[in-house]
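Escalation from tier 1.

The customer reports that the assembly of two entities below gives different structure tokens on two consecutive runs. Tier 1 could not reproduce it. I'm attaching the input and our single run for tier 2 to review.
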Amino acid sequence: MTGRSHCTRRIGPTDPRCGFHSGTRPLDDYFRRHALTNDQGDVGRAYVHEASAVDQAAGLPTVLGFYTLSMGTLASQDAATVLAKRLPRYPMPVVLIGRLAVDERARGRRLGEALLLDALARALEASSIVACVGVLVDAKDPSAEGFYARYDFVTLDDAEWPRRMLLPMSLVRAAFEDG
Amino acid sequence: MRLEATVPDSRGSAVLELAQQLGLSRSQIIDEALALFLKAVIEIRQGRRLMTQDASGSQALCELTTPTLTTLEWALSTERIELPDAALVKAQELIDAPAKPSARLRAAAKRHAR
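Tier 1 run:
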């Protein structure tokens, strides 16, 4: 069993209106308008990093960061080539980290790392009951790609943005076992 | 077969109370509970949800779930991601022969586990 930050929990009904502001409009719009409904509709689980009482007293929002998780399968764009080449014959199940963002007033606290590791811990836990070969992210820009690469994610295709990056589940497992 | 489990005190007390009320043994209660859970997992795996309904059928259905069943249901809802062949081969190679976790990732996992 892996440990888990006590500050990170499932999104709640009042969270979208807490004033979370990452500075990236699509992420802020998603959090405000879609994160809760997608979570309730089982489309994508949303988890939030809750601010401490001290932070809230200092005027920070109740949510300092969030991420979303869902499941996906990796498959070839061209099914006909699967048999001809040495490609996997079956879609490979993966956990998707759809979005991950930190409030701009809480930068410099390693919350990005805390959210990512929380997501990896939950993905590892899920992999004990549902098979998945790894964790996949879409890095939107070079800064995001650098962030995920620092935690061993590998870019699968560097021809276009967003970059698809994969971290094998066995590597996640080894990291938590070593830790 | 004999199985052993550690459960919260409150759950254990509830089993004992129920056994007395229903005139069943603890093993019978646990066997029935396991049968229900196994059936629930089968239903969720087939894309169905468990509901309870009042006898008249006039009131709203109430979903019956547990954290494990919710995780299972979430995990079975998948998105298909199509990759170019070269990217798919690279993914397969990474999975077949994963590197060891870097010192940074190990340290981060250790911090997280604290």
